[in-house]
Design goal:
alpha+beta, two-stranded antiparallel sheet, globular
């Protein structure tokens, strides 16, 4: 068996940013790790995303509110196929982030209730980011 030849510059992780999440001690199957770097007021903490939503679906859902600069989603903690996704979506400006949080927080999609909140640099949802009963 000759090993397959990979193209120059090939990286098994380049096309699959979530591949690293499978490493031991990674964030796969649990809560998202530390929030990614983003401009203050532009990073949203997102949870309750239907498990069958792909990245493209999430971009489409959030993209109507502004230009997305970063998206980092992980599956929830129970049985990989049925757990809602959670993670972060960053916008290039506060206006888009605030509009998305207002419009999407509490939205029910395929029986899952989404939670969307502005995340300050500390990584905890900010008070008053939206109505949370």
């Amino acid at each position: 068996g000759v090993p397959p030849v990979q193209p120059a510059g090939y990286s098994p992780h380049a096309a699959y940013p979530r591949a690293a999440a499978h490493q031991p001690g990674g964030v796969y199957g649990g809560a998202p790790g530390a929030p990614p770097a983003a401009k203050p007021g532009c990073l949203l903490s997102v949870s309750g995303v239907p498990p069958d939503f792909q990245d493209a679906d999430i971009r489409e859902l959030f993209g109507v509110y502004g230009s997305i600069t970063l998206m980092q989603m992980n599956r929830g903690s129970y049985s990989a196929g049925s757990a809602p996704k959670q993670g972060y979506v960053a916008f290039d400006g506060e206006v888009g982030a605030q509009a998305a949080a207002r419009a999407l927080d509490g939205k029910v999609m395929r029986q899952y209730t989404m939670r969307v909140a502005i995340t300050p640099a500390s990584g905890t949802p900010s008070p008053g980011a939206g109505p949370h009963p």
